[in-house]
Amino acid sequence: MNEAEQVAWAEQIENAARQGVPKPCLADKQPLSTEDAYRILQCRAEMRSADRIIGFKGALTNESAQATFRTAEPVIGLLFESAERVSGVIDSTEFKKGMIETELGFRLTKRITEPLRAVDQLQAVIDEMALMVELVDLDFAQFPPTLADLIVHNAAAKSFIRGQSKPFAEFTNQSQLRLEESGICLQEGTASEVLGDQRQGLMWMINTAMTLGYRLDAGLWLMTGSVGSVSLLRPGRYGLVCDGFETLTFEVV
């Protein structure tokens, strides 16, 4: 696929997103490699020059998600500034097939210019972590989409919410994340479900983003992927609970 074709596909996807129609599946129309898919995603980011990239997101980083999408390969996506919901209020009418994912996020404390070779190096480049909730929209024209189609659609990203930070030095893979609605547990999981070790997930995200040509500047957040299962997005009052963290509360209206 040449550069002109990549730009054309990026424009088509951006138009579909603005019009609110199902996400088109490009792999049905012509062969699409993961390299092409990541380049199309980069083209989309370049078309959104006013919408700052404030971090990266991991997807398909646990076995359950990989089984759903029939792959054993994780993917990386972008966190755009416009997607953050600081108010903690989510409008359900903005979604067609919305789902709730519970995750952990980690903040870079310095710019990274060289690939990481061991998880021990993370302590020098990450200073904070936080509970995070991602709201995705699985309104694909074909489901499940191919891996390439998932990439070009930024892993179905729509919105995200970030909780209060705490020091990365307190990290443990044994953390239990529990999503509650009005005090009733909807789903729970253990941090280590992400690639078997959140730190391995972080190192993979950092090195992959660098390979793709993105800058890894201080202040960016890395959201490593869903912990546990996912829940249907529907109106209600929710809380993401984890020992040692302030509960992340949000409302879907």
Describe this structure in words.
- Helices cover 24% and strands 31% of the residues.
- By secondary structure, it is an alpha+beta fold.
- It has one domain (52-252): Fumarylacetoacetase-like, C-terminal domain (Fumarylacetoacetate hydrolase, domain 2, Alpha-Beta Complex), CATH 3.90.850.
- The strands form two sheets. Strands 1, 2, 4, 5, 6, 9 and 10 form a seven-stranded mixed beta sheet that branches.
- The protein is globular, with a radius of gyration of 17 Å.
- The mean pLDDT is 95.
Shape, principal axes of CA atoms:
globular
> Radius of gyration, rounded?
17 Å
**Top-tier CATH class:** Alpha Beta
Number of helices: 6
The CATH architecture category equals: Alpha-Beta Complex
One letter per element, helices H and strands E, the order comes to HHEHEEEHEHEEEHEEEE
